[in-house]
């Protein structure tokens, strides 16, 4: 029976990698696991630390690590994360951080953020000033888009428009 940590490892191992069996994890997903589980904090444990440890425990020509190598990597990271604890105790603490975690998919977050960000541009009731003048009564922007150019050689609204042929 797989431990909670192994289940989390497998979920991250196959994340975005349909060819993965879940037995090995690549560096990108290893970094994601560390990030999503709160192991990487940007201060004590940085993404550079994670990359260094990954490259240290993996086989020379391999692009992935096994759960056994992952355990070694986590023991090493736990020494930075939980200074003063034994590697085994630190590993247990890291496994607790991993418990029940799944790879966070960012699409939902960004869609929500994007939707809110453009609302201000698409809600015509919030338009003011000259932008409001371009709207008709129904809130549609036809008035501002109509080609109202006059070709009288005077600019639009010029006070002397149409007086060229008239003599004083």
TrEMBL record:
SUPFAM superfamilies membership: EF-hand
Region spans: Disordered: 127-168
Keyword terms, alphabetized: Cytoplasm
Source organism superkingdom: Eukaryota
InterPro entries from the UniProt entry: EF-hand-dom_pair, TPP/p25
Subcellular location: Cytoplasm
Principal subcellular localisation of the protein: cytoplasm
GO biological process, one term: microtubule bundle formation
GO molecular-function term, one example from the UniProt record: tubulin binding
Keyword Repeat: no
Biased composition (Basic and acidic residues): 133-156
Residue stretches in coiled coil: none
GO cellular component assignments: cytoplasm; microtubule
PANTHER family noted in UniProt: P25 ALPHA-RELATED, TUBULIN POLYMERIZATION-PROMOTING PROTEIN FAMILY MEMBER 2
Protein family according to the UniProt entry: Belongs to the TPPP family.
Protein's recorded name: EF-hand domain-containing protein
Species the sequence originates in: Otolemur garnettii
């Amino acid at each position: 029976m797989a431990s909670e940590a192994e289940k989390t490892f497998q979920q991250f191992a196959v994340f975005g990698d349909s060819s993965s069996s879940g037995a090995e994890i690549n560096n990108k997903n290893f970094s994601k696991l560390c990030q999503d589980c709160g192991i990487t904090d940007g201060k004590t444990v940085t993404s550079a630390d994670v990359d260094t440890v990954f490259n240290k425990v993996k086989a020379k020509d391999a692009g992935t690590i096994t759960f056994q190598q992952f355990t070694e990597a986590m023991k090493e990271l736990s020494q930075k994360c939980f200074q003063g604890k034994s590697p085994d105790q630190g590993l247990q603490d890291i496994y607790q951080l991993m418990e029940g975690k799944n790879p966070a998919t960012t699409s939902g977050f960004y869609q929500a953020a994007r939707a809110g960000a453009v609302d201000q541009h698409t809600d015509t009731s919030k338009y003011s000033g000259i932008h409001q003048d371009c709207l008709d009564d129904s809130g549609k922007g036809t008035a501002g888009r109509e080609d109202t150019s006059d070709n009288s050689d005077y600019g639009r609204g010029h006070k002397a428009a149409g007086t060229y042929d008239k003599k004083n």
